[in-house]
Amino acid sequence: MIEIGVKIGKENGKGGTMEAHRKKGILYIVVPCYNEEEALLPSAKTLLDKLGALRSNGIVSEKSRIVFVDDGSKDRTWEIITQLYNANEEVAGLRFAHNRGHQNAILAGMMYAKDFCDYTITIDADLQQDIEAIERFIEEYVKGSEVVFGVRNSRNTDHFFKKFSATMFYKVMRSMGANIYENSADYRLMSAKALEALSEYDEVNLFLRGIIPDIGLASSVVHFDVFPRMQGESKYSLSKMLTLAADGITSFSIKPIRMVFGMGILALLVGFGMVIHIVYEHYFGYTIDGWSSILMSIWVLGGAILISLGIIGEYVGRNYMETKRRPRYYFWDVLSHDRTE
Ligand code: UDP
Ligand code: MG
Prior knowledge:
This protein is of the alpha/beta class. Strand 1, helix 3 and strand 2 form a beta-alpha-beta unit. The protein contains 12 helices and 7 strands. The chain has a 7-stranded mixed β-sheet, sandwiched between helices. The site of uridine-5'-diphosphate (UDP) has 17 residues, from strand 1 and helix 5.
């Protein structure tokens, strides 16, 4: 970590050399694939052409690669990746034994790439995301961004339910305190440094769209268009979407637990109001026998129980956050004359 800091510090010190240093970097494009036998070949051709153009125009290094991650597909996806690997020196393939989900596939690809590349760009295998945005991602990286977020222009290509659920999801995530861009996608550039920081997040349920903004390194945004899927069907079933949403919310915040506590306080306040009301009613004899004592105990006890649950929940929630062992901090730069060796 310190070595990286010292290196960047020197670059900055020379003034203007950072951009030069970042030009023609090694790009690894990471493509998660789940049952993509229909889309994979045309997409791979488009991506290989794109990478070829970027290489010959001197925008990226000759050592740049495309990494296909097979997320435990049950169709011919791995066979196709193997063919692509045999025919192209710039193709790499990783294969999961089980379907571990889109987020894990992206993460695996990035963690593989981190030791070889200067930066990665993740993109879906159906190439619904406009690959012409790649140059703009790279420009932002060259200018100094460690993370470049892709934000989609519109959701016109999505059907009503997906549009509605996605909008609600981002609203809920933001209200839960996650630092997430609306309509952000997993089409994103990450520098080796950002990948290094990401690798320190050990949690199992990793919600990348929430975690990556949390890292806090220099970042920027590129807007892109989304096209309809050309080949095959969406691999994001409703249950996968709901799991992603649940992971996003629960991995990020213990606010739902705090709501229990808030509800307890509210119930208790209502309970005290009820006590006054009930005593008044009782005093003037508008009530039947037993009503007052039952209602009072329901509200006051209910409030007390919810508050107790909230308190227990707070400890459980903190315990939950602790078990993630997230890094407390990550150095952006280090200026130091000390050497670690
Ligand atoms: N994907 C994956 N594992 C899964 C589901 C999807 O790796 O369990 C990949 C899929 O192959 C594609 C990307 O994630 O490259 C996005 O999926 P898809 O295009 O089906 O989602 P949508 O665009 O419909 O949201
Ligand atoms: Mg898609």
